[in-house]
Specification:
There is one protein chain. This protein has eleven helices and ten strands. With 290 residues, the chain is α/β, with parallel strands linked by helices. A five-stranded parallel sheet has the order 5-4-6-7-10. Strands 2-1-3 form a three-stranded parallel sheet, with helices on both faces. Helix 3 (45-60) crosses helix 11 (267-285), helix 7 (141-154) crosses helix 8 and helix 7 (141-154) crosses helix 11. The longest helix has 21 residues, at 9-29. It is globular and about 50 Å long. Bound molecules: guanine (GUN).
């Protein structure tokens, strides 16, 4: 019973990637070879793992990838010059600069330097604004993946009450916009909200993206709600390291109709939608193509 409630993010990501592989083959038949450039500055070990996974996944679906590794003491002007070159290079369709960046580099300036139609993270102001206006723009990978999982679980989201916990630029805010676009009534809950649990208890859909281990307990969840857990928190428990979400999975399981586990829920969707965004970017840059 409880297994039936578990949303399998790996399986969903595999389906998205299968579609991407098909779309890439179609673009190649039109003479377009989608290409993703990934930039890594410094030697943050987690960032190295993320970048390696992105490059590997790109290869698997037939997307060419270019990796730029720059030293930790890289000056902002050097990074901006690289972005300028990639913006102007018609062979490059997607540009991703892995965050976080070293302190001498201003992340906002870097994001704004990327051509909006190559901004596969969907972080550029033009894409953020376009999302709010309901335009056909590149949208952030993680919340777009969450929306996909919700539509798989529930079908039409129209009229549902969605509560998004967390107001980050990467997940919470774009998630709220995407859910509004899907005709949900949306409540954003954050650190200054009064009685977050009571607000959350009204939700048909809960998306938790705060980075606090097991913050969402059983008393936050209305029976039958669908819960998407974006949190990836490393904790130590009984002497061993483990990953847990923002939701207390075991506690809320009896209440929910469906829920994403951590790991194996939202995680695999982010890279899948990065690949999908690279295909969308290639089409945006070549409007007459497939
Ligand atoms: N670092 C952690 N998550 C992300 C992401 O979604 N995009 C980029 N560029 N860097 C990240």
């Amino acid at each position: 019973m409880s297994e039936a409630k578990k949303i399998d993010g790996k399986l969903a990501a595999a389906r998205v990637l299968e579609k991407v592989r098909h779309d890439v083959a179609e673009l190649k038949a039109e003479g377009l070879a989608p290409c993703l450039a990934v930039v890594l500055v410094g030697d943050d070990p987690a960032s190295h793992v993320y970048v390696r996974n992105k490059v590997q996944r790109a290869e698997e679906v037939g997307i060419r990838s270019i990796e730029h590794r720059l030293p930790a003491d890289t000056e902002q002007v050097t990074l901006l010059a690289l972005i300028e070159r990639m913006n102007a290079d018609p062979a490059i369709n997607g540009i991703l600069v892995q965050m976080p960046l070293p302190p001498q580099i201003d992340e906002a300036s870097v994001i704004q330097a990327i051509r909006p139609d190559k901004d596969v993270d969907g972080f550029h102001k033009e894409n953020v604004g376009g999302l709010v206006l309901g335009q056909n723009v590149l949208t952030p990978c993680t919340p777009t993946g969450c929306l996909y999982l919700l539509e798989q679980a529930l079908g039409d989201l129209s009229g549902k009450h969605a509560v998004v916990i967390g107001r980050s630029n990467i997940v919470g805010k774009p998630m709220a916009s995407l859910l509004l676009q899907a005709h949900c009534s949306v409540t954003l809950v954050h650190s200054r909200s009064k009685d977050a649990a009571a607000l959350c208890r009204q939700a048909d859909i809960v998306v938790a993206a705060v980075g606090r281990p097991r913050m969402v307990g059983a008393d936050w969840i209305k029976p039958g709600a669908v819960v998407i857990d974006v949190g990836i928190n490393r904790i130590e428990e009984n002497g061993r390291a483990r990953l847990v979400g923002d939701v207390d999975y075991d506690a809320v399981l009896p209440q929910v109709s469906a829920i994403t586990p951590v790991p194996g829920g939202v995680g695999p969707m982010t890279i899948a939608f990065l690949m999908r965004n690279t295909v969308l970017a290639t089409r945006l840059q070549n409007p007459l193509a497939a």
